[in-house]
Design brief:
single chain, 259 residues, alpha/beta, Rossmann fold, 2 domains, six-stranded mixed beta sheet, three-stranded antiparallel beta sheet, 11 strands, 25% helix, 25% strand
């Protein structure tokens, strides 16, 4: 995708964040363009959530600046849904709580995500995959120019993860929006990502998924993939399973992956 200035939705320019005398992030440079899927990866404690909080305006940068497109609209999908299980709350009601949402828009979004049958289901009875699609629906109701997805496949099995990544890519194609995804694992997102930015308090490496996968700093943080090429995971036809590390297992194995 071309990276013209007019296509830039958000630019992080030398962002640094320190708190209580501790440096959380330093010299972060990153740009997200219209129609581009950017995946932000890094180990636990690397500063991914801190950077997103800064993008969302929930935290101030200590140094540098964030430049936002004048018409930027962010649709945010949190990692988890925290709702009191004793609170009776249907999916329709939950989505209707989104600020500025038009209730007549809800059915179309649910249908687009294949979850229209969940409209009257209680939120706390949803499965992991259903919950993630409802959270995605909530983000889409803002008609975003930028989707910010925090671990969007949390609690979803491997097949469900692949379906969700395919869905996110098709939504990008339809809306022409930018997408910023946070992930701890590059393996499953590679085929649906344009640009990867690997951080560990600073930008370790960035570029195409293949470039990052082969970068020494990425390999030092995450290890070198096994005998099977990680990219191949996305093109499989469900004729095998994966162990807890994403490694392809033979057909007769009962191992599976729950990220």
């Amino acid at each position: 995708m071309s990276a013209g200035a007019n296509n830039a939705l958000v630019s992080f320019d030398n962002i640094g964040i320190a708190f209580d005398g501790r440096t959380l992030l330093s010299d972060i440079n990153m740009t997200i363009h219209k129609g581009e899927i950017v995946t932000l990866i890094g180990p636990n404690g690397s500063g991914k959530s801190t950077l997103i909080r800064t993008l969302l305006g929930l935290q101030q940068a200590t140094s540098g600046r964030i430049q936002r497109h004048a018409q930027l609209r962010i649709g945010y999908m949190p990692q988890k849904l925290h709702i009191d299980p004793t609170l009776p709350l249907s999916v329709n009601h939950f989505l209707g709580l989104v600020k500025g949402v038009k209730k007549q828009d809800i059915p179309a979004v649910l249908t687009r995500l294949g979850i229209n049958k969940l409209a009257n289901k209680q939120v706390h009875f949803l499965s992991g995959g259903e919950t993630q699609r409802v959270l995605l629906a909530r983000a889409l109701l803002n008609r975003p120019s930028l989707l910010v997805l925090d671990e969007p496949v949390q609690g979803v099995d491997v097949n469900g993860q692949i379906e969700l990544y395919n869905l996110i890519a098709s939504i990008r194609d339809e809306l022409g929006c930018g997408v910023l995804m946070i992930s701890h694992d590059l393996h499953l997102v590679m085929a649906k990502t344009d640009t990867v930015v690997c951080i560990n308090q600073h930008v370790c490496c960035s570029g195409s998924p293949q470039h990052v996968k082969e970068h020494p700093e990425y390999q030092a943080l995450f290890g070198v993939p096994g005998a099977e090429d990680s990219i191949a995971i996305y093109s499989h036809h469900h004729d095998h399973t994966h162990d807890e590390h994403g490694k392809v297992m033979p057909n007769d194995s009962h191992s599976h992956c729950n990220h």
